[in-house]
Amino acid sequence: MSSSPRSLSRAGSALRHWQRHQWFAAGAGTLLTAVLVGVPTDVIPTPLFSRSVPVQGWNYPALAVTAALAGVVLSTYVRGPATSATPATPATPATPTAPSAPDPAGGGRLGSLGGILSFLAVGCPVCNKLVLLLLGASGALSYWAPLQPLVALASVVLLTEAALRRLAGQTACPVPASA
Q1: Which residues of 22-55 are buried (b: 16+ CB within 10 A; e: fewer)?
Q2: What pLDDT score does 106 carry?
Q3: Element (H or E) spanning 34, and its range?
Q4: For residue 94, what pLDDT band results from cuts at 50, 70 and 90?
Q5: How many beta carbons lie within 10 A of that of residue 106, not counting itself?
Q6: Distance (Å, rounded) from C-alpha 68 to C-alpha 148?
Q7: Are 70 and 29 in contact (CB under 8 A)?
């Protein structure tokens, strides 16, 4: 095995061993991310929010891919079901349990940054207050809007890396379920 914090084969192995509740968490995380990013950016139309600039065609697949990757990353924080373990005795003290998977080399931080970037990528360029403050309305349309597809790509890359690192960590350093 490689010493890299990520490994495609270990990530695939972790996915093959996922149980129903982990897949459910991935699906729920995907839906939650899609709603939390899509509704305020008005990619998912609701009467609550509106956009000054119409949704671009690439916004929909960008939202779908980032939501799916974020769902996988979020589900890596779900602990596996408790298995029958031998109770602790004075000769074998109980060891404290850690989260379901370690955060090898910042996988959680990469996932958070990827989620923020996905929000910035699919949002209306002139509805972003920070961009408006820095560039003005014409600057937002002239400079920020053309960069948004690249921001979406960066979001996908970061979320993919986070998922690979978190999944590889599940098989590289499995944590025993608590009793």
Answers
A1: beebbeebbeebbeebbebbbbbeeeeeebeeeb
A2: 60
A3: helix 20-38
A4: very low
A5: 14
A6: 19
A7: yes
Q: Cβ–Cβ contacts within 10 Å for residue 81, how many?
A: 10
Quick check: 41 and 123 in contact, CB under 8 A?
yes
User: Are 118 and 71 spatial neighbours (Cβ–Cβ below 8 Å)?
Assistant: no
What dihedral do alpha carbons 17, 101, 79, 91 form, nearest 10°?
100
Per residue in 157-172, is it b (16+ CB within 10 Å) or e — as a string?
A: ebbbbbbbbbbbbbbb
123, 139 contact by CB (below 8 A): no
Taking the C-alpha atoms of residue 100 and residue 80, their distance in angstroms, rounded to an integer, is: 7
Which band of pLDDT confidence, cut at 50, 70 and 90, is reported for residue 4? low
Q: Which amino acid is at 1?
A: M
DSSP category for residue 106: G
Using an 8 Å Cβ cutoff, are 101 and 169 in contact? yes
Strand ranges inside 18-113, DSSP E: none
State the Cα–Cα distance between residues 41 and 119, nearest whole angstrom.
Answer: 7
